[in-house]
Amino acid sequence: MSPRRLAAAATVVGLVTAGLTVTGGAATANGGGYSALIQRASYGVPHITARDFASLGFGAGYVQAEDNICLIADQMVTVRAERSRWFGAEAGNVSSDLFHQKAIDDQVAEQLLAGSRDGVRAPSTPVRDQVRGFVAGYNAYLRDGKAITDPACAGKEWVDPISELDMWRAYWARMVLASSGALIDGIVAAAPPTASGNGESAHAPQAEAAVATVDGAPAGLGSNAYGLGRDGTTSGASILLANPHFPWDDTERFYRMHLKVPGRYDVEGAALVGDPLIQIGHNGQIAWSHTVSTAHRFVWHRLALVPGDPTSYLYDGQARKMTARTVTVQTPTGPISRTLYDTHFGPVVVVPGHFDWTTTTAYAITDANATNNRALDGWLAMGRAGSVGELRKVLDRRQFLPWVNVIAVDRRGRALYADHSVVPRVTDSLAAACIPAPFQSVYASSGQAVLDGSRSSCELGRDPDAAVPGILGPANLPTLVRSDYVTNSNDSYWLANPEHPLEGYPRIVGDEQTQRSLRTRLGVHQVRQRLTGIDGLPGKGFTTSNLWDVTLGNRAYGGELVRDDLVRSCEARPTATTSDGATVDLTAACAALRGWDLRVDLDSRGAHLFTEFAMAGGLRFADPFDPTAPLTTPSRLAVDDPGVRTALADAVQKLAGIRLDARLGDIQTEPRGAEQIPIHGGRSEAGAFNMINGGFESGVGYPKVLHGTSFLMAVELGSNGPSGRQILTYSQSANPNSPWYADQTRLYSGKGWDTIKFTQRQLRADPNLVTYRVGEQRD
């Protein structure tokens, strides 16, 4: 039977419609089918309650389609390998299609689903039910016949029903985002040398440069997070700060929701659009967030090719033939075919001029996330954990986090940091024995491993405690539990808490005893200053209120360190030469920097000038990094370094046509229709904790945010249940005709917030609450 939206905008109490009843706030069904209760709170945030995971998925799929159908449909075009067909045969679309078509041809999604449904060897039944329900809910929204009002996809043929395989293909694409997905161009471009090709291998300096540009980190992604235990808060109740920095547009946007199956799952937070389960959030006992980890997700294998046959390689002295697969995709002008090459390690990849495929050498990768089918079960299990101890067991057993750390707190007052992400098993002993000499320095400096692909002894092997072969087990991964605090701002695990440095882990996971970013340093300083009460705010210790103030205090730590020295240098010699040889008068720049308040608030004047100076390479320090004082070194501006003045001149030149003392809120904005909403926050290069990266437009400023603070949550796990603040900076819907397209963006502009609404009492206190049901009978 056709699906139907049931009693939209009806009240919860006493509602009985079409065989569904409301019992204790949960939607139940008389017989088979899907049914879910939707309670839309302020800012359009859906609180979804259902009797089982299939119906919960249905509700999630339905409301996400209501708000962001174009984003989900766009994801499906990608994983169906149809971008060229619908959006044109541009190089990026063709490469994407070839990559995803190969995954379709190889039945990657089908293989993810094969095996015992234990949540480790293959996805469990509840997770499959959730995905099945999500698909049904999305398709039900389409079949309801409501007109799509988002101009991004209204009337487009590529918006059509989706399948469960589409969803699993999209899931796989997210898993490999920081590995194979970061190397799509190199995988598609890999081709054996012609008869005239050279036979020289990449040498070490080139290899190091190549690794630096393809280290697998998802572009534009990052985060801050604090886990504050009982000794770090005024109440003694744990508090979590979640502050992911993600794109403000396209398919990697977050979506706020609250999902509940009574007695089985009850989590409020956010997921990436198109995902059926909460990825950052809290239940009644624990709260958690993620930050992008420094660990690497793939390893290189240097292949020694068989003389005279560049598509065969030597392995323990025997020749092995590469697998060649011709992949064809459709474009508006006709089909395009490429032959892609695989080894038993994984795909052959080229980085032109660095990792070339020559007559003697080629390079393949092993992607540790390519077979990661554990993540949805992992997040489901996280949401059901009742303590940090239980969460650690989830992490140890499933090892599912694709490319992120976890920072968590529980009601017992404990805070957890762990990088238990999926990391290839490159131990120190394997690295010493199997990374060829020219690449040892690459591994030491970057953590990228280039292994000898000619020996079976250099395979990744298996740790005895690892969930699956080829990855580091829990004993080789950093974990820390504290009662005061843990923190991460995208540096490695080393100083998750500086009082207890984490050391001795394989280099592939991260670096130790090395310089930290300005954002990491400021993040720790903010915690320490709040705990001792020297940050200018009342009292000592954290509340959710002052945590919000600290996070959005918009300090620019780079300016705190060097602004005064920079101004003195500038005023002493108010002319400088740009990197292209132009002479620039610095008088206005000196005045703007002297008047700057060292923050990136809307009213901060001159903040953009300092940011451009930092981005031009001006933050050069006279003192070296000292591993015994990692949070305070380096700190002194190298005023005698010519590069400092050149960077300031370059910044002034770039900002031509823009007042150097302009208010940040006048030049850093986010468009919503005809409105330009002022946006506070700044770049990591300047040492801003609240990270906002805007696209620069000459003579205008930064009229569009590219990525930065996205979902922001400060939640306390108190005796009366979770409470606190949260916001989605770019708002719930990408549809300009949605009522929830700009409301939270304006709220963020004013440093406002929405409240945590975990309990029915909290939810029913919302004056904007609207309740309806969605459902569908099944044959």
From TrEMBL:
Pfam families: Penicil_amidase
GO molecular function: hydrolase activity, acting on carbon-nitrogen (but not peptide) bonds, in linear amides
Domain of life: Bacteria
Keyword Hydrolase assigned: yes
CDD domains named in the record: Ntn_CA
Keyword annotations: Hydrolase, Signal, Zymogen
Record has Hydrolase as a keyword: yes
Biological process (GO), any one: antibiotic biosynthetic process
InterPro entries (alphabetical): Ntn_hydrolases_N, Penicillin_amidase_A-knob, Penicillin_amidase_dom1, Penicillin_amidase_N_B-knob, S45
Family: Belongs to the peptidase S45 family.
Name of the protein in its database record: Peptidase S45, penicillin amidase
Lineage: Bacteria, Bacillati, Actinomycetota, Actinomycetes, Micromonosporales
